[in-house]
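Q: I'm writing a short explainer about Uroporphyrinogen-III decarboxylase for a general audience and would like to include a description of its predicted shape. Could you first generate the structure from this sequence?
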Amino acid sequence: MRSLARVLGTLNFTDVDRTPVFFEHSGFVARSAGISIEKYLTDVDILVAVNLETVKKFRTDIISVCLDSCVEAEALGSKVVYSNTAYPNIPTPLITDWHQLDRLTVPDPWSSGRMPLMLKAARAVVEKDAGEHFIVGQVLGPVTIASQIYGIENLIYLIVDDPEGFMELLKFSTQVTELYCAALRETGIHAIMLHDPTASPDVLSKSVFADLIAPQLKGMIQRIREQQETYLWLQIIGNTSSVLPLIADFNLEMVTIDSPVKLSDAFHCLENKVVIGNINPMLFRNASFDQLSSTLKHIYEQQRKFGYVIGTGCETPLDACEKNITYFLELIGRIKCLC
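A: Of course. Here's the predicted structure. Afterward I'll give you a sentence or two in plain language.
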């Protein structure tokens, strides 16, 4: 069974030959090959080659075409500091008062910053992969975009001092996400991942998520759904156990759960959604082979028959150990002998 058919079968909650596997390894692969992270994130040919090499090298089922968490803010005008060995960062907020939003314009994904590079890479990966794998393009969610242009500390104070101002900021960043999603869908990918780590209850609390963030995310997802046919995938890191019932009400097909979330809780709350997780990616950096074996056996003891993808809650560390990754994937192939 081809990887694409395997994932599509999983999305339809039907029998497949094995559980699909998804790990975000491309940054690690680039660094292991001696490619600077800055070059990897700014050269479309290298980005495409690394994505295709990653899925070939590790024989996983999903290709994730993504850059970093600064793309949208950079397109809006934020200064980004690049590194050869780490992902870029934004040293200073673009705005310090939400009223300054009137200075900003929602960027055109086809001409702003590195957004066009991402779109070109996604289209090239779709063309070169030729239907072998399920391809997802990653877009930052509105809460994380807001934190990137406003600063996370400033954002927390804004929520407390001026929740209406926070909502105005969130409405603007939501437009950025929606327009980027519309452009990305034109590249021919199968799914869009809405990656919104700052929305985590570990960062902004359950009550903030429930009262302010969830209604905005739900409305945005519904608008994206109405405008285009695509699978939608939500990834929020950290312990999202308390907000899974809210996420269950979102009109999307796939949800990543991070390592603090129990698989049983996710399966109970997300009965009609594909669950991806809940492996801690740090295991690929410093775990023993026995720990890796124990982790996978525990997953297989809990997993449900349909609607599950073995995966991590976020990206593999850039300094991961390739032997750990390879061993873990080999275990997946022979897990029945270990149980």
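A: For your explainer, you could say: The chain has a mean pLDDT of 95.
Q: Perfect, that's easy to follow.
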